[in-house]
Amino acid sequence: MSHDAHQAHGEGAHHGYTHHKDDHLRRLKRIEGQARGLQRMVNEDVYCIDILTQVSAMTKALESFALVLLDEHLNHCVAQAVAEGGDVAQTKLTEASAAIARLVRS
Amino acid sequence: MSHDAHQAHGEGAHHGYTHHKDDHLRRLKRIEGQARGLQRMVNEDVYCIDILTQVSAMTKALESFALVLLDEHLNHCVAQAVAEGGDVAQTKLTEASAAIARLVRS
Amino acid sequence: MSHDAHQAHGEGAHHGYTHHKDDHLRRLKRIEGQARGLQRMVNEDVYCIDILTQVSAMTKALESFALVLLDEHLNHCVAQAVAEGGDVAQTKLTEASAAIARLVRS
Amino acid sequence: MSHDAHQAHGEGAHHGYTHHKDDHLRRLKRIEGQARGLQRMVNEDVYCIDILTQVSAMTKALESFALVLLDEHLNHCVAQAVAEGGDVAQTKLTEASAAIARLVRS
Protein backbone atom coordinates (compact mmCIF):
# COMPACT_ATOMS: atom_id res chain seq x y z
CA MET A 1 0.00 0.00 0.00
CA SER A 2 2.76 2.42 0.87
CA HIS A 3 4.23 1.76 -2.58
CA ASP A 4 1.03 2.80 -4.37
CA ALA A 5 0.78 5.84 -2.17
CA HIS A 6 4.35 6.65 -3.11
CA GLN A 7 3.58 6.32 -6.81
CA ALA A 8 0.82 8.89 -6.38
CA HIS A 9 3.57 11.43 -5.83
CA GLY A 10 5.05 10.78 -9.23
CA GLU A 11 8.74 10.57 -10.08
CA GLY A 12 11.23 12.73 -8.21
CA ALA A 13 8.74 13.34 -5.42
CA HIS A 14 9.81 15.31 -2.36
CA HIS A 15 8.45 14.12 0.94
CA GLY A 16 7.93 16.15 4.07
CA TYR A 17 11.30 15.18 5.45
CA THR A 18 13.36 16.23 2.44
CA HIS A 19 13.32 19.83 3.70
CA HIS A 20 15.41 18.74 6.67
CA LYS A 21 17.50 16.07 4.96
CA ASP A 22 20.80 17.29 6.43
CA ASP A 23 19.39 17.27 9.95
CA HIS A 24 18.14 13.73 9.49
CA LEU A 25 21.41 12.49 8.04
CA ARG A 26 23.33 14.07 10.92
CA ARG A 27 21.05 12.37 13.47
CA LEU A 28 21.41 9.00 11.72
CA LYS A 29 25.18 9.39 11.42
CA ARG A 30 25.29 9.89 15.21
CA ILE A 31 23.10 6.80 15.72
CA GLU A 32 25.43 4.79 13.46
CA GLY A 33 28.30 6.03 15.65
CA GLN A 34 26.45 4.80 18.74
CA ALA A 35 26.12 1.34 17.14
CA ARG A 36 29.87 1.31 16.50
CA GLY A 37 30.53 2.55 20.05
CA LEU A 38 28.54 -0.40 21.40
CA GLN A 39 30.70 -2.84 19.42
CA ARG A 40 33.84 -1.24 20.85
CA MET A 41 32.37 -1.54 24.36
CA VAL A 42 31.60 -5.26 23.89
CA ASN A 43 35.07 -5.81 22.41
CA GLU A 44 36.73 -4.13 25.38
CA ASP A 45 34.67 -6.06 27.96
CA VAL A 46 33.04 -2.92 29.31
CA TYR A 47 30.71 -3.53 32.26
CA CYS A 48 27.23 -4.78 31.14
CA ILE A 49 25.28 -2.04 32.90
CA ASP A 50 27.27 0.68 31.12
CA ILE A 51 26.49 -0.99 27.78
CA LEU A 52 22.79 -1.09 28.68
CA THR A 53 22.86 2.63 29.54
CA GLN A 54 24.28 3.28 26.08
CA VAL A 55 21.58 1.11 24.47
CA SER A 56 18.87 3.16 26.24
CA ALA A 57 20.41 6.39 24.93
CA MET A 58 20.53 4.98 21.40
CA THR A 59 16.92 3.80 21.59
CA LYS A 60 15.86 7.29 22.67
CA ALA A 61 17.80 8.87 19.78
CA LEU A 62 16.12 6.51 17.31
CA GLU A 63 12.72 7.27 18.83
CA SER A 64 13.31 11.02 18.49
CA PHE A 65 14.30 10.59 14.85
CA ALA A 66 11.09 8.63 14.20
CA LEU A 67 8.94 11.26 15.92
CA VAL A 68 10.46 14.14 13.91
CA LEU A 69 9.99 12.21 10.67
CA LEU A 70 6.41 11.33 11.55
CA ASP A 71 5.60 14.93 12.45
CA GLU A 72 6.88 16.11 9.08
CA HIS A 73 4.98 13.33 7.34
CA LEU A 74 1.71 14.38 9.00
CA ASN A 75 2.31 18.06 8.23
CA HIS A 76 3.25 17.52 4.60
CA CYS A 77 2.30 14.25 2.91
CA VAL A 78 -0.81 13.52 4.99
CA ALA A 79 -2.05 17.13 5.22
CA GLN A 80 -1.62 17.61 1.46
CA ALA A 81 -3.43 14.37 0.63
CA VAL A 82 -6.27 15.25 3.02
CA ALA A 83 -6.58 18.74 1.48
CA GLU A 84 -6.90 17.10 -1.95
CA GLY A 85 -9.34 14.52 -0.56
CA GLY A 86 -10.36 11.20 -2.08
CA ASP A 87 -8.87 7.73 -1.81
CA VAL A 88 -5.26 8.84 -1.43
CA ALA A 89 -6.24 10.82 1.69
CA GLN A 90 -7.79 7.72 3.24
CA THR A 91 -4.78 5.59 2.32
CA LYS A 92 -2.40 8.08 3.91
CA LEU A 93 -4.41 8.30 7.12
CA THR A 94 -4.61 4.52 7.39
CA GLU A 95 -0.92 3.98 6.80
CA ALA A 96 0.01 6.79 9.22
CA SER A 97 -2.06 5.10 11.94
CA ALA A 98 -0.37 1.77 11.24
CA ALA A 99 3.09 3.38 11.44
CA ILE A 100 2.16 5.06 14.74
CA ALA A 101 0.97 1.72 16.15
CA ARG A 102 4.28 0.08 15.18
CA LEU A 103 6.23 2.87 16.91
CA VAL A 104 4.12 2.74 20.07
CA ARG A 105 4.53 -1.05 20.25
CA SER A 106 8.25 -1.18 19.42
CA MET B 1 28.18 3.37 41.11
CA SER B 2 28.54 1.06 38.13
CA HIS B 3 32.21 2.03 38.03
CA ASP B 4 32.84 0.87 41.60
CA ALA B 5 30.97 -2.34 40.93
CA HIS B 6 33.16 -2.83 37.89
CA GLN B 7 36.29 -2.31 39.90
CA ALA B 8 35.17 -5.05 42.26
CA HIS B 9 35.77 -7.49 39.40
CA GLY B 10 39.41 -6.58 39.20
CA GLU B 11 41.44 -6.17 36.02
CA GLY B 12 40.71 -8.35 33.02
CA ALA B 13 37.29 -9.23 34.38
CA HIS B 14 34.91 -11.34 32.28
CA HIS B 15 31.28 -10.37 32.45
CA GLY B 16 28.29 -12.58 31.76
CA TYR B 17 28.09 -11.48 28.16
CA THR B 18 31.69 -12.27 27.24
CA HIS B 19 30.70 -15.92 26.69
CA HIS B 20 28.61 -14.81 23.73
CA LYS B 21 30.77 -11.96 22.48
CA ASP B 22 30.65 -13.06 18.83
CA ASP B 23 26.85 -13.26 18.90
CA HIS B 24 26.64 -9.77 20.36
CA LEU B 25 29.08 -8.30 17.86
CA ARG B 26 27.15 -9.89 14.99
CA ARG B 27 23.87 -8.39 16.28
CA LEU B 28 25.44 -4.95 16.70
CA LYS B 29 27.05 -5.13 13.25
CA ARG B 30 23.59 -5.77 11.80
CA ILE B 31 22.16 -2.82 13.79
CA GLU B 32 24.98 -0.60 12.49
CA GLY B 33 24.02 -1.77 8.98
CA GLN B 34 20.40 -0.75 9.66
CA ALA B 35 21.59 2.74 10.68
CA ARG B 36 23.51 3.01 7.40
CA GLY B 37 20.49 1.66 5.49
CA LEU B 38 18.36 4.46 6.97
CA GLN B 39 20.83 7.07 5.75
CA ARG B 40 20.69 5.60 2.26
CA MET B 41 16.88 5.69 2.38
CA VAL B 42 16.84 9.37 3.43
CA ASN B 43 19.42 10.18 0.72
CA GLU B 44 17.32 8.47 -1.95
CA ASP B 45 14.08 10.19 -0.85
CA VAL B 46 12.42 6.91 0.07
CA TYR B 47 8.81 7.26 1.24
CA CYS B 48 8.56 8.36 4.94
CA ILE B 49 6.39 5.44 6.02
CA ASP B 50 8.90 2.92 4.67
CA ILE B 51 11.65 4.66 6.65
CA LEU B 52 9.50 4.51 9.81
CA THR B 53 8.94 0.79 9.29
CA GLN B 54 12.71 0.35 9.15
CA VAL B 55 13.14 2.42 12.33
CA SER B 56 10.64 0.16 14.17
CA ALA B 57 12.59 -2.94 13.06
CA MET B 58 15.85 -1.38 14.24
CA THR B 59 14.34 -0.42 17.61
CA LYS B 60 13.16 -4.00 18.09
CA ALA B 61 16.64 -5.34 17.22
CA LEU B 62 18.21 -3.00 19.76
CA GLU B 63 15.64 -4.01 22.39
CA SER B 64 16.39 -7.71 21.81
CA PHE B 65 20.11 -7.08 22.17
CA ALA B 66 19.48 -5.29 25.48
CA LEU B 67 17.28 -8.11 26.80
CA VAL B 68 19.84 -10.79 25.95
CA LEU B 69 22.59 -8.77 27.62
CA LEU B 70 20.46 -8.13 30.70
CA ASP B 71 19.54 -11.81 30.99
CA GLU B 72 23.22 -12.79 30.94
CA HIS B 73 24.01 -10.05 33.44
CA LEU B 74 21.37 -11.36 35.87
CA ASN B 75 22.53 -14.96 35.42
CA HIS B 76 26.22 -14.23 35.86
CA CYS B 77 27.26 -10.95 37.48
CA VAL B 78 24.19 -10.49 39.68
CA ALA B 79 23.76 -14.17 40.61
CA GLN B 80 27.45 -14.48 41.52
CA ALA B 81 27.39 -11.32 43.64
CA VAL B 82 24.22 -12.45 45.42
CA ALA B 83 25.74 -15.89 46.11
CA GLU B 84 28.75 -14.14 47.68
CA GLY B 85 26.44 -11.77 49.57
CA GLY B 86 27.34 -8.46 51.19
CA ASP B 87 27.39 -4.92 49.84
CA VAL B 88 28.36 -5.82 46.29
CA ALA B 89 25.22 -7.97 46.01
CA GLN B 90 23.04 -5.04 47.05
CA THR B 91 24.83 -2.69 44.65
CA LYS B 92 24.34 -5.10 41.75
CA LEU B 93 20.64 -5.56 42.49
CA THR B 94 20.09 -1.81 42.74
CA GLU B 95 21.92 -1.03 39.51
CA ALA B 96 20.14 -3.89 37.68
CA SER B 97 16.76 -2.42 38.71
CA ALA B 98 17.82 1.01 37.51
CA ALA B 99 18.94 -0.40 34.15
CA ILE B 100 15.63 -2.26 33.77
CA ALA B 101 13.71 0.96 34.53
CA ARG B 102 15.69 2.81 31.84
CA LEU B 103 14.91 0.08 29.30
CA VAL B 104 11.21 -0.04 30.16
CA ARG B 105 10.98 3.75 29.87
CA SER B 106 13.03 4.13 26.68
CA MET C 1 -3.89 24.77 23.37
CA SER C 2 -6.08 21.70 23.39
CA HIS C 3 -8.69 23.75 25.18
CA ASP C 4 -8.81 26.37 22.43
CA ALA C 5 -8.98 23.68 19.81
CA HIS C 6 -11.85 22.16 21.72
CA GLN C 7 -13.67 25.48 21.84
CA ALA C 8 -13.41 25.68 18.07
CA HIS C 9 -15.88 22.78 17.96
CA GLY C 10 -18.50 24.74 19.80
CA GLU C 11 -20.93 23.38 22.38
CA GLY C 12 -22.19 19.82 22.08
CA ALA C 13 -19.36 18.93 19.75
CA HIS C 14 -18.98 15.35 18.58
CA HIS C 15 -15.43 14.10 18.28
CA GLY C 16 -14.19 11.25 16.13
CA TYR C 17 -14.52 8.77 18.92
CA THR C 18 -18.15 9.48 19.79
CA HIS C 19 -19.23 7.17 16.94
CA HIS C 20 -17.79 4.24 18.87
CA LYS C 21 -18.55 5.41 22.40
CA ASP C 22 -19.98 2.05 23.51
CA ASP C 23 -16.91 0.20 22.26
CA HIS C 24 -14.64 2.58 24.15
CA LEU C 25 -16.64 2.36 27.35
CA ARG C 26 -16.59 -1.43 27.15
CA ARG C 27 -12.79 -1.45 26.70
CA LEU C 28 -12.31 0.95 29.62
CA LYS C 29 -14.70 -1.03 31.83
CA ARG C 30 -12.52 -4.10 31.17
CA ILE C 31 -9.37 -2.11 31.99
CA GLU C 32 -10.98 -0.92 35.24
CA GLY C 33 -11.72 -4.58 36.00
CA GLN C 34 -8.04 -5.41 35.41
CA ALA C 35 -7.05 -2.72 37.92
CA ARG C 36 -9.41 -4.25 40.46
CA GLY C 37 -8.10 -7.73 39.64
CA LEU C 38 -4.57 -6.53 40.43
CA GLN C 39 -5.68 -5.28 43.85
CA ARG C 40 -7.24 -8.66 44.58
CA MET C 41 -4.00 -10.40 43.52
CA VAL C 42 -1.91 -8.17 45.83
CA ASN C 43 -4.39 -8.75 48.68
CA GLU C 44 -4.23 -12.53 48.22
CA ASP C 45 -0.39 -12.58 48.07
CA VAL C 46 -0.36 -13.92 44.52
CA TYR C 47 3.13 -14.62 43.17
CA CYS C 48 4.88 -11.41 41.92
CA ILE C 49 5.57 -12.74 38.42
CA ASP C 50 1.89 -13.52 37.87
CA ILE C 51 1.00 -9.96 38.91
CA LEU C 52 3.59 -8.58 36.47
CA THR C 53 2.10 -10.70 33.65
CA GLN C 54 -1.27 -9.14 34.43
CA VAL C 55 0.25 -5.62 34.42
CA SER C 56 1.72 -6.27 30.95
CA ALA C 57 -1.69 -7.38 29.66
CA MET C 58 -3.32 -4.27 31.14
CA THR C 59 -0.66 -1.98 29.61
CA LYS C 60 -1.29 -3.55 26.20
CA ALA C 61 -5.06 -3.06 26.58
CA LEU C 62 -4.52 0.61 27.46
CA GLU C 63 -2.17 1.03 24.51
CA SER C 64 -4.74 -0.48 22.13
CA PHE C 65 -7.42 1.86 23.44
CA ALA C 66 -5.11 4.84 22.86
CA LEU C 67 -4.28 3.72 19.31
CA VAL C 68 -7.95 3.28 18.35
CA LEU C 69 -8.80 6.71 19.79
CA LEU C 70 -5.86 8.34 18.01
CA ASP C 71 -6.81 6.71 14.70
CA GLU C 72 -10.35 8.09 14.99
CA HIS C 73 -8.98 11.49 15.98
CA LEU C 74 -6.75 11.62 12.87
CA ASN C 75 -9.58 10.45 10.60
CA HIS C 76 -12.17 12.87 11.97
CA CYS C 77 -11.00 15.90 13.95
CA VAL C 78 -7.62 16.32 12.23
CA ALA C 79 -8.78 15.43 8.71
CA GLN C 80 -11.75 17.82 8.99
CA ALA C 81 -9.57 20.67 10.30
CA VAL C 82 -7.01 20.09 7.54
CA ALA C 83 -9.74 20.06 4.89
CA GLU C 84 -10.95 23.43 6.21
CA GLY C 85 -7.36 24.70 6.40
CA GLY C 86 -6.05 27.67 8.37
CA ASP C 87 -4.76 27.98 11.90
CA VAL C 88 -6.98 25.33 13.43
CA ALA C 89 -5.50 22.77 10.99
CA GLN C 90 -1.99 23.64 12.15
CA THR C 91 -2.99 23.51 15.82
CA LYS C 92 -4.55 20.08 15.38
CA LEU C 93 -1.50 18.69 13.57
CA THR C 94 0.83 20.05 16.25
CA GLU C 95 -1.18 18.68 19.14
CA ALA C 96 -1.62 15.29 17.42
CA SER C 97 2.18 15.03 17.05
CA ALA C 98 2.65 15.93 20.72
CA ALA C 99 0.11 13.27 21.77
CA ILE C 100 1.85 10.66 19.58
CA ALA C 101 5.21 11.55 21.16
CA ARG C 102 3.73 11.10 24.66
CA LEU C 103 2.34 7.68 23.70
CA VAL C 104 5.60 6.51 22.10
CA ARG C 105 7.56 7.62 25.18
CA SER C 106 5.16 6.26 27.82
CA MET D 1 6.45 -22.55 35.74
CA SER D 2 5.60 -19.62 37.95
CA HIS D 3 3.11 -21.83 39.75
CA ASP D 4 5.77 -24.41 40.67
CA ALA D 5 8.05 -21.63 41.80
CA HIS D 6 5.21 -20.34 43.95
CA GLN D 7 4.67 -23.76 45.50
CA ALA D 8 8.32 -23.80 46.51
CA HIS D 9 7.42 -21.06 48.98
CA GLY D 10 4.94 -23.25 50.78
CA GLU D 11 1.53 -22.17 52.10
CA GLY D 12 1.08 -18.67 53.46
CA ALA D 13 4.20 -17.51 51.63
CA HIS D 14 5.21 -13.87 51.79
CA HIS D 15 6.67 -12.42 48.64
CA GLY D 16 8.96 -9.44 48.37
CA TYR D 17 6.10 -7.08 47.75
CA THR D 18 4.06 -8.02 50.81
CA HIS D 19 6.19 -5.67 52.92
CA HIS D 20 4.74 -2.75 51.00
CA LYS D 21 1.25 -4.10 50.42
CA ASP D 22 -0.49 -0.89 51.48
CA ASP D 23 1.64 1.20 49.14
CA HIS D 24 0.82 -1.12 46.25
CA LEU D 25 -2.88 -1.14 46.99
CA ARG D 26 -2.90 2.66 47.18
CA ARG D 27 -1.16 2.91 43.78
CA LEU D 28 -3.57 0.41 42.21
CA LYS D 29 -6.59 2.17 43.73
CA ARG D 30 -5.39 5.39 42.05
CA ILE D 31 -4.93 3.54 38.74
CA GLU D 32 -8.46 2.14 39.05
CA GLY D 33 -9.64 5.73 39.62
CA GLN D 34 -7.86 6.79 36.42
CA ALA D 35 -9.70 4.04 34.51
CA ARG D 36 -13.00 5.34 35.87
CA GLY D 37 -11.96 8.92 35.06
CA LEU D 38 -11.39 7.90 31.45
CA GLN D 39 -14.90 6.45 31.23
CA ARG D 40 -16.33 9.70 32.56
CA MET D 41 -14.30 11.65 29.97
CA VAL D 42 -15.59 9.48 27.12
CA ASN D 43 -19.15 9.78 28.46
CA GLU D 44 -18.90 13.57 28.61
CA ASP D 45 -17.41 13.85 25.08
CA VAL D 46 -14.15 15.34 26.35
CA TYR D 47 -11.71 16.28 23.60
CA CYS D 48 -9.73 13.25 22.27
CA ILE D 49 -6.30 14.75 22.92
CA ASP D 50 -7.13 15.35 26.59
CA ILE D 51 -8.20 11.71 26.91
CA LEU D 52 -4.92 10.58 25.30
CA THR D 53 -2.94 12.70 27.78
CA GLN D 54 -4.76 10.92 30.58
CA VAL D 55 -4.02 7.51 29.02
CA SER D 56 -0.29 8.37 28.90
CA ALA D 57 -0.36 9.33 32.60
CA MET D 58 -2.12 6.09 33.46
CA THR D 59 0.37 4.02 31.44
CA LYS D 60 3.23 5.68 33.29
CA ALA D 61 1.58 4.95 36.66
CA LEU D 62 1.15 1.30 35.70
CA GLU D 63 4.77 1.12 34.54
CA SER D 64 6.00 2.57 37.83
CA PHE D 65 3.96 0.05 39.79
CA ALA D 66 5.49 -2.78 37.71
CA LEU D 67 9.03 -1.48 38.25
CA VAL D 68 8.61 -1.22 42.02
CA LEU D 69 7.17 -4.73 42.18
CA LEU D 70 9.95 -6.11 39.99
CA ASP D 71 12.62 -4.43 42.11
CA GLU D 72 11.19 -6.00 45.26
CA HIS D 73 10.94 -9.36 43.51
CA LEU D 74 14.63 -9.25 42.52
CA ASN D 75 15.70 -8.16 46.01
CA HIS D 76 13.65 -10.75 47.85
CA CYS D 77 12.38 -13.80 45.94
CA VAL D 78 15.19 -13.96 43.37
CA ALA D 79 18.02 -13.01 45.74
CA GLN D 80 16.85 -15.56 48.31
CA ALA D 81 16.56 -18.34 45.72
CA VAL D 82 20.00 -17.50 44.32
CA ALA D 83 21.52 -17.53 47.82
CA GLU D 84 20.03 -21.02 48.34
CA GLY D 85 21.21 -22.09 44.87
CA GLY D 86 19.99 -25.06 42.83
CA ASP D 87 17.14 -25.44 40.35
CA VAL D 88 14.78 -22.95 42.00
CA ALA D 89 17.43 -20.22 41.57
CA GLN D 90 17.67 -20.93 37.84
CA THR D 91 13.87 -21.01 37.50
CA LYS D 92 13.54 -17.66 39.26
CA LEU D 93 16.22 -16.03 37.09
CA THR D 94 14.62 -17.36 33.90
CA GLU D 95 11.13 -16.22 34.83
CA ALA D 96 12.39 -12.80 35.96
CA SER D 97 14.06 -12.30 32.56
CA ALA D 98 10.85 -13.32 30.80
CA ALA D 99 8.82 -10.85 32.89
CA ILE D 100 11.31 -8.06 32.14
CA ALA D 101 11.08 -8.81 28.40
CA ARG D 102 7.27 -8.59 28.58
CA LEU D 103 7.48 -5.22 30.36
CA VAL D 104 10.05 -3.81 27.92
CA ARG D 105 7.93 -4.92 24.95
CA SER D 106 4.54 -3.80 26.32
What would you say this structure looks like, in words?
The structure is a homotetramer of 106-residue chains. Chain A has 106 residues and is an all-alpha fold. In chain A, 80% of the residues lie in helices and 0% in strands. Chain A has a single domain, classed as Up-down Bundle (Methane Monooxygenase Hydroxylase, Chain G, domain 1), CATH 1.20.58.1000. In chain A, helix 3 packs antiparallel against helix 4. The longest helix of chain A is centred in the middle third of the chain and has 37 residues. The N terminus of chain A is likely disordered.
Name some characteristics of this structure.
Methane Monooxygenase Hydroxylase, Chain G, domain 1, homotetramer, about 110 residues, about 80% helix, mainly alpha
**Span between termini of chain A:** 21 Å
Number of H- or I-type helical stretches of chain A: 4
| Count of the domains of chain A | 1
Largest interface, Cβ cutoff 8 Å: A-B, 53 and 54 residues
Radius of gyration of chain A: 18 Å
Largest sheet of chain A: none
Second CATH tier, the architecture of chain A: Up-down Bundle
| SSE arrangement of chain A, N to C | HHHH
- Average residue-wise pLDDT of chain A: 88
Tell me which oligomeric state these chains represent: homotetramer
CATH class of chain A: Mainly Alpha
**CATH homologous superfamily caption of chain A:** Metal-sensitive repressor, helix protomer
**The CATH topology of chain A is what?**
Methane Monooxygenase Hydroxylase, Chain G, domain 1
Show unreliable segments of chain A.
1-12
- Overall structural class of chain A, as computed from helix and strand content, comes to mainly alpha
Q: How would the global form of chain A be characterised?
A: elongated
User: Can you count the beta strands of chain A?
Assistant: 0
Helix content estimate of chain A:
over 70%
How much of the sequence lies in strands of chain A comes to under 5%
